[in-house]
Amino acid sequence: MSDEHPAGGPTPRRAAGVPGEGGARPRLTAPRIIEMKRRGDPIVVLTAYDFPTARIADQSGVEILLVGDSLGTVVLGYESTLPVTVEDILHHTRAVVRAKPAALVVADMPFMSYQVSDEQALLNAGRLVKEGGADAVKLEGGERVAAAVRRMVEAGIPVMGHLGLTPQSVLAFGGYKVQARGEADQERLLREAHLLEQAGCFSLVLEGIPARLGVQVSRELGIPTIGIGAGVGCDGQVLVTHDLLGLFLGHQPKFVRRYADLGGAMGEAFTRFVADVKARRFPSDAESY
Ligand code: KIV
């Protein structure tokens, strides 16, 4: 910790090392995430949108908490991520930050919060850091966002890139389809990955691309790649937490591995509660004053 802040942490918001307040792990920072690639240490990323999930994921060893705009589909009930606003991401980033995680908190830049101009992009990225407490921001796209990335990095904001099946382009793609299957598209993705690294990104999400391309991008870049449907050759992996937990009831892509059936567990618990109330078994004497 001492390499970053004389008071013991990069920002004063967390109490790293205090039990229940982020655990004894050192704070994860963007330079530390890059260092993990150099050490060959796989980087674990999960989405988080609320305080308890952030706390549990952090205590489980997750290294990056992404307040993804997947918020729109898995929490807010939208059909795509397009309606998500900067205010939505700010609200949920603050909740995640209140968990005082040792993990790096990355706030996703929603659709139309960075496409209008580089100034708009910088101002919104600044809000996510300044008002939301995020450690970094993420945005989708390659060449078209490289100048905006450079502005953010110059302002001191760590940026995570995102290439491949970028969900904010669902209308242009005509659906959620695996990207870069052809040679020309693969070359373009590779070129854009290099452009994002040159612009200053500290990491790059690769979504919905052939595994072989995931390996190639990961080999060629000095910054870590974080895969989601991009094969095991990436430097880290991310899943949407609601998919992993079995809490999202919509379509599950092939790359999702379900580690729990919390949706089923919730349904069972709610059904038992309904039955207990209907039968006047709840509350008991011990649960009453
Ligand atoms: O919004 C999100 O959750 C994401 C991840 C799937 C990478 O962008």
Automatic annotation (TrEMBL):
Names of the cofactor(s): Mg(2+)
Main location: cytoplasm
Cellular component GO terms held in the UniProt record: cytoplasm
Subcellular location field: Cytoplasm
Keywords: Cytoplasm, Magnesium, Metal-binding, Methyltransferase, Pantothenate biosynthesis, Transferase
Sequence positions that bind Mg(2+): 69, 108, 140
Keyword Transcription on entry: no
Reactions catalysed: (6R)-5,10-methylene-5,6,7,8-tetrahydrofolate + 3-methyl-2-oxobutanoate + H2O = 2-dehydropantoate + (6S)-5,6,7,8-tetrahydrofolate
Annotated GO MF terms: 3-methyl-2-oxobutanoate hydroxymethyltransferase activity; magnesium ion binding; methyltransferase activity
Any single GO BP term: methylation
Cofactor-binding details, from the entry: Binds 1 Mg(2+) ion per subunit.
Region: Disordered, residue numbers: 1-29
Pathway(s) where this gene product acts: Cofactor biosynthesis; (R)-pantothenate biosynthesis; (R)-pantoate from 3-methyl-2-oxobutanoate: step 1/2
Family: Belongs to the PanB family.
Record's subunit section: Homodecamer; pentamer of dimers.
Function: Catalyzes the reversible reaction in which hydroxymethyl group from 5,10-methylenetetrahydrofolate is transferred onto alpha-ketoisovalerate to form ketopantoate.
Protein name as catalogued: 3-methyl-2-oxobutanoate hydroxymethyltransferase
Record organism: Eiseniibacteriota bacterium
Gene behind this protein: panB
